[in-house]
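Tutorial, part two.
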Amino acid sequence: MGVGNTLMTDEAAGPRAMEAFRAIAGDLEGITFLDAGTLSFTLADEISSHNAIIVFDAARLKAAPGTVQVLEGQAMDDFVRSGKLTVHEVGITDLLDMARITGELPVQRALIAIEPAEIGWGLELSAAVAAAMPLAARAARSVAERFLANQGEVV
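Running the prediction step on this input gives:
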């Protein structure tokens, strides 16, 4: 699931990383690709209907622009609750909490976080974040391979 606004430079890192992952995930079966935009409560059903979730998003990691960090399970939950992610209409925390309340939180979950260089109006990623797209895609493929071996479907 790629999260972010594609009209705002590095805020588009989530959807762009998801597309980079799609380009190298051709032989993996059981993956649903979802451009979540800036999120909405309507995504709760989509999240709940899968055994695993990988979220791509621009996030303040206090690292160099283009840094990619993979956070899984409780580490992901703790990070998104810390408020370090970019601001969206509905937060990833809100969606995960909705799934948790209904008992449908995917057991396997990961966040592929990418440190932005700039957030502003524009259709292009910064050079540092654009260069990080293959790394984010490879990280997601590694996570997806493990998740698929353990559970099945991944969004």
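The chain has one domain: 2-150. In part three we will examine how such features are distributed along the chain.
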